[in-house]
């Protein structure tokens, strides 16, 4: 169509992406780059066709009910889509897209970085040297960590990212175990030497490291419940580059404090009301390694995510099915074309 789509972008994107959007679309960017309130979002969407959302936008049923009628597409800049009520969007005839695949490898890299950082005391060593100025030089017994090779890794969610983590972990000599909604084919399992567990509980008792790679849904909320955290193998640890709500965080904190678990390496953690001070204390004591939700934060990934958003918008506005359509569980097609 000859009409330029009118879009609202809720967060700043890489300059090349913003520039390209501006040439293709009537583009409004939230220059302040802080999450918009619901009222500001609704106001900013007046006369817009497309909402380019991010994880910091809460697009719940209440907000969807208030959307201007012109809005027909929610094009999420990101893979995870738990900030959008997919059922409400679907019922309202809205199309939802995301940007999978382009951030798989970078996110998997970060999972491995975190997996290494905790047992090899990476952050602790750097901090001792640089911040505390406490290094007395090499000694045979200083800064001893634990070997990763030979340990058992339990991957929860063997999708794109879980599989990319398994490939890397295999090269580090970890044995691969996984729990997933669907068992993967022998073509996926065999090169990884991966063991499938039909029971998450049973896997948690058997592995040394648990790494989460499942989307946040109603079903996966607190998948690592207090009971399951207590079930984990003594001395094991958790890696999370997915979503904080997958874990009962206070229960995780308690099990690290008690010494049952050796720690956690977290790119994501609850922070709605500030970060749990007990978690920060554990990080200060080097039992926990924390990074700032940056598993997919490479310039390359962000640019490719932006390109995927652009393709989703263009195909949709041209009347075709966008490549990265997201549907609610159980739905296979669009509710109606708006
Ligand atoms: C982004 C992410 O930081 O894609 C995801 O699920 O967590 C990250 O890539 C965020 O989603 C941007 O909206």
UniProtKB/TrEMBL annotation:
Residues 20-326 form the D-isomer specific 2-hydroxyacid dehydrogenase catalytic domain. The keyword Ribosomal protein does not apply. PROSITE patterns: D_2_HYDROXYACID_DH_1, D_2_HYDROXYACID_DH_3. Residues 112-295 form the D-isomer specific 2-hydroxyacid dehydrogenase NAD-binding domain. The keyword Nucleotidyltransferase does not apply. InterPro entries: D-isomer_2-hydroxyacid_DH, D-isomer_2_OHA_DH_cat_dom, D-isomer_DH_CS, D-isomer_DH_CS1, D-isomer_DH_NAD-bd, NAD(P)-bd_dom_sf. It comes from the Bacteria. Keywords: Oxidoreductase. PANTHER family: 2-HYDROXYACID DEHYDROGENASE-RELATED, GLYOXYLATE_HYDROXYPYRUVATE REDUCTASE B. Belongs to the D-isomer specific 2-hydroxyacid dehydrogenase family. This is D-glycerate dehydrogenase. It comes from Devosia nitrariae.
